[in-house]
Amino acid sequence: MIQTPYLLFLGDAPDQLAAKVAQGIKDWRPENAVGQFRMEGCKADLGLEDMDLVEAREAGAKTLVIGVANRGGVISPEWKKVLVMALEEGFDLASGLHNLLRDEPDLVAVAEACGRELHDVRVPEVKYPIANGKKRTGKRCLAVGTDCSVGKMYTALAMDAEMKKRGLKSSFRATGQTGILITGDGVPLDAVIADFMAGSIEWLTPDNDNDHWDMIEGQGSLFHVSYSGVTMALIHGGQPDALILCHEPTRETMRGLPEYTLPTLEELRDMALPLAKVANPACQVVGISINTQHMSEEDALSYLAEVEKRIGLPAVDPFRQGAGRLVEALDAI
Amino acid sequence: MIQTPYLLFLGDAPDQLAAKVAQGIKDWRPENAVGQFRMEGCKADLGLEDMDLVEAREAGAKTLVIGVANRGGVISPEWKKVLVMALEEGFDLASGLHNLLRDEPDLVAVAEACGRELHDVRVPEVKYPIANGKKRTGKRCLAVGTDCSVGKMYTALAMDAEMKKRGLKSSFRATGQTGILITGDGVPLDAVIADFMAGSIEWLTPDNDNDHWDMIEGQGSLFHVSYSGVTMALIHGGQPDALILCHEPTRETMRGLPEYTLPTLEELRDMALPLAKVANPACQVVGISINTQHMSEEDALSYLAEVEKRIGLPAVDPFRQGAGRLVEALDAI
After folding, report:
1. Predicted ipTM of the assembly
2. Angle, CA of A298, A261 and A330, to the nearest 5°
3. Among A203, A223, B8, B205, which residue's beta carbon has the most beta carbons within 10 A?
4. A237 touches chain B (CB under 8 A)
5. Could you list the pLDDT tens digit for every one of the 333 residues in chain B?
6. Edge-to-edge strands, sheet with B33-38
């Protein structure tokens, strides 16, 4: 569990896109983002107050979150200087970088001397149980995709935000690095050992109030042969009551698999639902979330209308239209 | 890769069943089993020559394999004495115990001093790639089950043995501890990190001759919510051309999941085949392997006949009847 709120470290980000983790935190958990820390040459700007370490501490920030991708996969000496100062100033550090904080002996030594924590969110910090399949109280919704990176995390975050806005009980349950940094907690599922995958998701989504929804972040796709086992563990560990189908209509081949084409939404529905019913016979497919970022407004709206008519479920792009209709579909079951 | 042949360590096994790993090696790879090592009070006997360490070395044994379950999950001082002597005598050690050899400082020190290897087959020794889904040459068969522990490993071993007897090209590909100890090689799939599961199976079953079959050891079940992600990775990483359905007809609930009943063979077929076709559109279900150990001969034969008629595929118990008809079904595709 990462201590909030955060000071967002943007480093020397070469452009806005490099700071997309920080952007996600600011967009989805603005209350966690006290300010931004930018180094010389930083080309990203979240529109937050620029703060030095002392100012951020005074403003209440507890953790410096590396919200930017590093170049070349290494933590540069310039970054290192700031990270060491942050530890000395009393911040914990949190990072989703491949280059782990714990693999830097100087950071480990300073953190220990200062009594601070290093959080590498790519590495599980919990000994997860083996799944027991027992029915849990409360409700769960899982986004499943025709491919990886089609908007499953965005969909779950948008639905969670909309539910909270409406006064409904909802928790976004992070299963990947970005989601964990946004919320401060979660399971880095792709780094969990095979036998404990489904159990880690049971652990993440425990018994809850009958009218509470866990909005579980999806991973991979049943149709993506590299990661389908991870998706399977989410479907059985998550015991979803509701599935949302996610799709990106302009993509021609599966991400990273040029020999594989995407399935249709119907194929996704017909594959995912029987599998979900193994763990929860009451599971239903309730809506469709389409990522239309590469389509014009006109094309997007006509595509959504066509899908909605064809499949008979609400079909929206939550980025363009909000997640209201998906939340209403959840509320109806 | 574990050096063969083996001396099989039976320790102070309380009964024959406790030595089932050693029994598997002797049954399936008798050429790997030079002899057995029994301590005082050992109640198991494989019918192999009893040897001390020196005799076994002279007979060519290279690795002492712990072919017995340990009591209480710890390596006892009595065992330890033998294991240390074996290292000093020039043996590598191999074990599938939960209590890892590498977690015993004295064994590690002696192994290092003697230049010997400690193989904990529960722990991956290879850095596996992420699956790329590319079509590989050669053919692959995977056993999938209605539940865990219904005879998938036995089926693959029996088919592999039958194919070799007929002069066909076949390799048994181990994906669990027992299978790895039997063959000396394989992937301990349940201990692999989620992102690399499917890639580890691609690694295990590489390009091969067009008329060569990999007989892949199955794990878990698509219907077993604790382990279904592991099964999924086998189906997509293995790219099977042929599936064998495995079932144990007298079992009432899923292993370790008292709230879950077993699916029918038809439900297994209809779930597994579309998933397998994602990675290999030519995949077929070719046969059915039934574990009838808890049925009388008469009941078993009538059950097999009924299943065969109902599903329209050869249905056999390879333990009672041999795997000939399953091999013929493979050969026909």
Report:
1. 0.93
2. 60
3. B8
4. yes
5. 899 999 999 999 999 989 989 999 999 999 999 999 999 999 999 999 999 999 999 999 999 999 998 777 789 999 999 999 999 999 999 999 989 999 999 999 999 999 999 999 999 989 999 999 999 999 999 999 999 999 999 999 999 999 999 999 999 999 999 999 999 999 999 999 999 999 999 999 999 999 999 999 999 999 999 999 999 999 999 999 999 999 999 999 999 999 999 999 999 999 999 999 999 999 999 999 999 999 999 999 999 999 999 999 999 999 999 999 999 999 888
6. B33-38, B6-11, B63-66, B92-95, B118-120
| Contact at CB, A257 and B230, closer than 8 angstroms | no
**Of the candidates B189, B193, B198, which has its C-beta nearest A225's C-beta?**
B198
Residue type, position B97, single letter: L
State how far residue A224 is from chain B, nearest Cα, in angstroms. Answer: 8
pTM: 0.94
The answer to whether the CB of B242 falls within 8 A of the CB of B231 is no
Three-class SS state of B237: helix
Q: How far apart are CA A15 and CA A12, in angstroms?
A: 9
Nearest chain B CA: its distance from A326 CA (Å): 27
Specify the 3-state DSSP secondary structure of B2.
Answer: coil
- Tell me if A229 sits within 8 A of B194, measured CB to CB: yes
- What gap in Å lies between CA B150 and CA B263, rounded to an integer? 13
- Picking from B140, B177, B195 by the largest number of A CB atoms within 10 A of its own CB, the best residue to mutate is B195
Residue in chain B closest to A188 (alpha carbons) equals B194
Instruction: Name every residue whose Cβ is closer than 8 Å to that of residue A157 and which is 6 or more positions away in sequence.
Output: A28, A172, A179, A182, A215, A217
Place of tokens 């009218």: A211
- Distance, in Å, from the CA atom of B132 to the CA atom of B22, rounded to the nearest integer, reads 36
Are B90 and B204 in contact by the 8 Å Cβ rule? The answer is: no
Sort out which chain B residues have CB atoms less than 8 A from A232's CB and list them: 222, 228-229, 231-232
Closest-CA residue in chain A for B131? A226
Alpha carbon distance B286, B329 (integer Å): 6
As given in the structure block, the two tokens for residue A323 are 């997640």
CA B183 to chain CA centroid, nearest Å:
9
